[in-house]
Amino acid sequence: MGFDLLSELPKLLWLVIGVAGFLAVFGVLLLAVDRGPRTRREWWQAACFLGPAALLLLVGLVYPVVRTTVLSFMDGPGQAWVGLRNYAWMFTRPEILVVLRNTLLWVLVAPALATATGLVYAVLVDRARYESLAKSLLFMPMAISFVGASIIWKFVYAHRPAGSDQIGLLNQVWTLLGGEPRLWLLDQPLNTLLLIVILIWIQAGFAMVILSAAIKAIPTDIIEAARIDGVSPLQLFWRVTLPMIWPTVAVVLITISVQTLKVFDIVRTVTGGQFSTSVIANEMYNQAFRYGELGQGSALAVFLFVLVVPLVLIQIRSTRRSREAQ
Amino acid sequence: MTPNRTDPGGRAPDRSSPDRRGPAQAARVRARLSGAAGSAAAIAIAVLWTLPTAGLLISSFRPEEQIKTTGWWTVPFDPEFTLRNYADVLFGSSSDGRLASYFINSFTIAVPTMVFVVLLAAMAAYALAWMRFPGRDWLFIGVFALQIVPLQMSLVPLLRLFSDGVAIGTATVLPPLDLPGAFQFTNVWIAHTMFGLPLGIFLMHNFISRLPSSIIEAARADGAGHGTVFRRIVLPLTVPALVSLAIFQFLWVWNDLLVALIFAGGSIEVAPLTVRLAELAGTRGNEWQRLTAGAFVSMVVPLLVFFSLQRYFARGLLAGSMKG
Fold it and tell me: Where in this protein does the record put region Disordered (chain B) (predicted)?
């Protein structure tokens, strides 16, 4: 059976009804809010404006955070208390320790390399002739999905047996250099590094855009003064550019670190977490939604949360500081 | 300008001692050399970043036997192109992907969510910025703090809530949201709206709280209620911010895998492109004629949005990347 547009109509109809219904309620609310009784007006007007969002946040985030924390101290189906057993499980089971090790590897490698690449590129193309085109090239991966990016790179890593033509770029280059074609994604721990490359490929554009804006904000007279003194481009970078944009570099590093901690799509699409490539977010999904181990899945989620919090606190502080510096 | 900024500039002339002028010629040569090396490095990075995508795009137009037997870089020696892969993957049998259905699903998920988040966030942000009521500052801090919460913390309980409903004792407060057919999109809409709100409110608050208070207070003094002020003054003045948030929210939902995987499942009735593609990559990892074309079907919309609205896209970026 092929594609049938008629069978798709209910979806589009529901889309229109959903949006129209929402807009109607929204409009009525805005009109009604000015016509109510005059007693305690500010209070219930605020309730009308904030109520819908507050309710959604309470149900969708506040309650679940509490519930997940509670679940992390309970057994698989979430019925009996088990104390700290799920946390003990997490830090003693060899396969979960591999997951934690991989996550650590991701956080150590991805943010640093993505930021470094973005920074170097931003400096190199700054005021170059085709600057905006050059930036678009690096930035483009930001627009597409992690799943799309994963497929792009899975194709780069594709393998054909020795003797036949290679279809994956990496094996082609590798065989040209005299190597035997390899199954890159089975090769631990190299496979985790190859997955990390995908995230670097995506995030370098983000780093580049933010850092490029910071570089452009450096007053020209400083650069000119340094140039007149005969400072070489490299010295200019290390002694002037980098110190001046350092607060922004820190913010970018931490932002990408938070993203890296939560990485899920890449691992799931490329290897499915097999061959020792799983990370916390992927393992959490497996435990909670594939094996029905709600307690262990929740413990992993809580641990992820605990890892993210300090990073975000640092980020808020350094964002505030870089704003004050301006 | 702050003293902090002028400092390196002020220090710089001190370094220009006379003996540095001697080797100026050499320095200029060195600068030009490193300039050439710099350009080469920039080009190398640009090529490295573009080549994988180009390879996939070229491959998606090659016949199946060729994709599977020769590298895409051999195309100049043996150019043969076809649209067959796209026809198959979009409209073929369901084992081929039938991505057209999933494409519509992606739209049906992303468009309403975008509308819901933008309007609800604008409303909440207006209340937090311009209304006076007890506990306002605490509420703002609370919303701000929610941005930290990783999605993973919320998935299990929220899915339970949808499947079991809410009951206090024996009284059902909310029935299970177990809907048939196209109505299943409702769950995904609600989940995505919940997850989009903290960032949405935060971004909108940044813009709305900076509106000149004279305008809003003048309107209030003329007797306009909050509903009128919001509709007639705030919404029109914040259009650029609304557009930025809308684009960002749309792309985030369009590209999302995790939320869809859990709240939409894998069925052709509701699952978006990302879920289907991840599935194809897992089960048919060597069917490159499907994967290459399929990946580009999923990228077309984000790329169009990206190239036509790049200016808006970059704006919400720093704050936006915190989401998830």
Answer: 1-24
